[in-house]
Design goal:
The complex is a heterodimer of chains A (about 280) and B (about 170). In chain A, about 65% of the residues lie in helices and about 0% in strands. Chain A has about 280 residues and is mainly α. In chain A, helix 7 runs antiparallel to helix 8 (about 140-165). In chain B, the strands form 2 sheets. A 6-stranded antiparallel β-sheet of chain B has the order 1-10-9-4-3-2, with no helix packed on it. In chain B, strands 5-6-7-8 form a 4-stranded antiparallel β-sheet, with no helix packed on it. The chains are: A mainly alpha (about 280), B alpha+beta (about 170).
């Protein structure tokens, strides 16, 4: 009697190798499903369950998720670009030209990187406005807003440092002007200017410093703050979804269990119980 | 007995002493690390070109001419009073300015600052005529070397219209 594919997969999952890699194994019980998330080092930042209302599109337009998505695209395209780019002064421009005209898929990678960068800045602002206008920054989420502002600054700095790397006229003068703006800071402005550029003018030191900032320091800082941002979402009770939002009301109608004692829907805030009824 | 075992206010236990010693050493180490890190980030040697540039013989610059040396970022101006040099870097945000002979002024293409080149009344060469630039274009030290070449030191500013700010040949 031949085994079906499903049966063969079940056998595979019982092998020592599989159980050593995946520990709790697959399964459809609640426990197994929770363990699949909770015991995974990559996934355990997320909670094992979320409320359906938090997944509604009209609540967030998925802007935060999209921002993270563009960030991942930027990392995924940026790293291959690093294989062909030398951050030294005459070479950088030639390498950018090479990536565009000579390297296979170089044009695609570079363009995707550039477009994702612009998209990420746009999405970050849109996400910020959406959070603000929904009031998703209110207690207890105030600190998460602060983390979000830090992430906004990191995003803008990533854009700024990346702008210099092609070493063309646009890049050179943009950074000259930008660093001169930095030198307008009172008292320490000139020091900041000197440290940022590693010199008195935009030259080889500046390019290398901006490269290190763009490829190593700022992405690592961004990842740390993104982790904090997501952790705070969990600890603050999940994505903000006020019961009066239309999507939430619809979700509430079916999702929330009814308290056997009072006959009310669990989870309805007292201020809205009269409106929502059962 | 009570006096021996009770802790008086000015007594420090051995644990507290070593804790303080340890924390104090760690603080000193942290401050030292910060100081050294800052020093590390400031380069001690710069591979930048010398601020002193050789602009050639004076007779390359006719009377009443304004010549921009793009690579050095300075103007060599030969006026009635002699040869002098202005910085070509706009004092607003660092763009390279341009000499506009049809207008008789120096203009910055970035944000529209305009600077005077000739002396007219109270306006000195380098003074801002209009625009967001906060300061006039600085005068740079200019002199003749032993070969008779004009040399300009871009790192040294000199007072405008001062006798030593000109080279008279």
């Amino acid at each position: 009697m031949a085994k079906t594919i499903d049966q063969r997969f079940d056998d595979l999952r019982q092998t020592r190798v599989w159980r050593s890699i995946f520990r709790s194994g697959a399964g459809s019980s609640t426990l197994k499903r929770a363990l699949a998330i909770q015991q995974n080092v990559f996934l355990h930042l997320f909670s094992t369950k979320v409320r359906t209302r938090m997944l509604s599109f009209s609540a967030t337009w998925y802007l935060g998720t999209l921002t993270l998505g563009t960030f991942l695209i930027l990392v995924a395209t940026g790293i291959p670009l690093m294989f062909y780019y030398h951050p030294s002064v005459p070479q950088a421009y030639a390498d950018t030209k090479d990536l565009q005209f000579v390297v296979s898929s170089g044009l695609f990678l570079r363009n995707l990187h550039r477009w994702s960068a612009h998209a990420m800045v746009f999405l970050v602002f849109a996400h910020m406005f959406k959070v603000f206008y929904r009031g998703a920054y209110r207690t207890p989420r105030e600190f998460n807003w602060v983390i979000g502002v830090v992430l906004l600054l990191i995003t803008l700095l990533l854009s700024y440092t990346g702008y210099l790397l092609p070493w063309d006229q646009l890049a050179y003068w943009a950074i000259t002007v930008g660093s001169n703006i930095a030198s307008a800071v009172p008292l320490i402005g000139d020091k900041i200017h000197f440290l940022l550029l590693g010199g008195n003018a935009v030259n080889a030191n500046a390019l290398l410093r901006f490269y290190v900032l763009h490829c190593m320091i700022l992405p690592l800082t961004a990842m740390i703050f993104v982790a904090m941002h997501f952790w705070r979402i969990r600890k603050d009770g999940g994505l903000y979804a006020h019961s009066s939002e239309p999507a939430v009301v619809r979700a509430n109608a079916s999702e929330f269990p009814t308290s056997p004692k009072t006959g009310e829907k669990w989870g309805t805030p007292s201020s809205l119980r009269a409106k929502e009824g059962q | 007995m009570a006096e021996e075992t009770s802790k008086q206010t000015d007594d420090v236990t051995r644990r507290e002493f070593f804790t303080k010693l340890g924390l104090g050493s760690l603080s000193i180490a942290a401050v030292g690390t910060a100081a050294f890190s800052y020093q590390y980030l400031e380069p001690n040697v710069l591979y930048e070109p010398s601020p002193v540039v050789n602009e050639g013989k004076p007779d390359r610059y006719p009377l009443d001419s304004v010549t921009l040396d793009v690579n050095s970022g300075i103007y060599i101006i030969h006026s009635q009073e002699g040869y002098f040099s202005l910085s070509a870097v706009c004092t607003h945000l660092g763009c390279l300015t341009a000499w506009k002979p049809e207008l008789g002024i120096i203009a910055c293409p970035c944000h529209g600052s305009k600077f005077a080149v000739s002396e007219q009344g109270k306006v000195r060469p380098g003074d801002k005529i209009e625009g967001p630039a906060p300061r006039p274009l600085p005068w740079k030290r200019i002199w003749l070397n032993d070969d008779g070449d004009l040399l300009v030191d871009r790192s040294t500013d000199v007072p405008p219209l001062a006798p030593d700010s000109f080279v008279r040949v």
